[in-house]
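Predict structure. Chain length: 205.
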Amino acid sequence: MDCIKIKSGTSLLRVFHAAPQSLPVDVYINEKLAFSNLKYKEFSNYKILSEGEYRIDVFVAGDMTKPIISGALELEEGQILTIAAIGDKDKLELLVIDDHSDKFANTEKSSFRAVHLSPNTPNIDIYVNGKDLITDLEYKQNTSYLDVKQDRYNMDVVLSESEMMVLCFSSTLKVDRIYTIYIIGDLPNLEAIQSVDGNTYLCKS
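Prediction complete.
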């Protein structure tokens, strides 16, 4: 992807469908269709929006009878945001996650963070190659970006209180990339979804 420069007065926004019990969705921004038929575990592309106030409505795909989630967003200039549709079927909501336009990719390191989006999972720790690198991560909480060397890492997710293992996965982290690893799903069926964040491609000058 080419270098991205955020134009004056605009920001970048994408949507992540992370609600495990929800059908595919259509996302409307200020009553205009922005993203269609977004399935569970899928991301939209980043969309350029002008700074300002927005109404976001999420409908079951193809059914505009009643939104399953509605929310308001105050968008400031120069932001990169991921909005996640999260929760179980009785408590769906939108979570705004800052993809940090002040973070730049490093040609010698890889960067990653974790976000806990499993609605029925207590606080978690994440072990990276056996080291307890992320501790006591709450639902809807994200870590800061961590800079690490390029490698393939084994990651284990355990419940903070009981230390019970609930998910094991491997992640390849490359230099000059900024990643978010989203922990999603309902216990015992958790998954890790790895995304390259938009700040990876920001122009540095």
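Summary: The domain at 10-98 is CATH 2.60.40.10 (Immunoglobulin-like).
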